[in-house]
Amino acid sequence: MRTRGGVPPAQIVPGSPDGTPSPPGAVGEPASPGAPGPTTVTYLGHASLLVEASGETLLTDPVFSGRIARIFTKRTRPSGFRPEELRGLRGVVLSHAHHDHLDYASLRRIGRTHPLVVPWGVATALRWRGFTDVRVLRPWEGLSLGRWRVVAVPSRHFGGRLPFVFTSGYQGYVLDGPSCIYFAADTGFDEAMFREIGRRFALDLAVLPIAGAVFPWFRRNHMNAEEALRAFRLLGAAQMLPIHFDTFPASFEPAGRARRTLVDAAARLASPATVTLLEEGQSLRLGAAVDRAPFTPDRAPTVAPVPGGGHVGDWKVA
Question: Does residue 266 contact residue 275 with C-beta atoms inside 8 Å?
Answer without folding.
Answer: yes
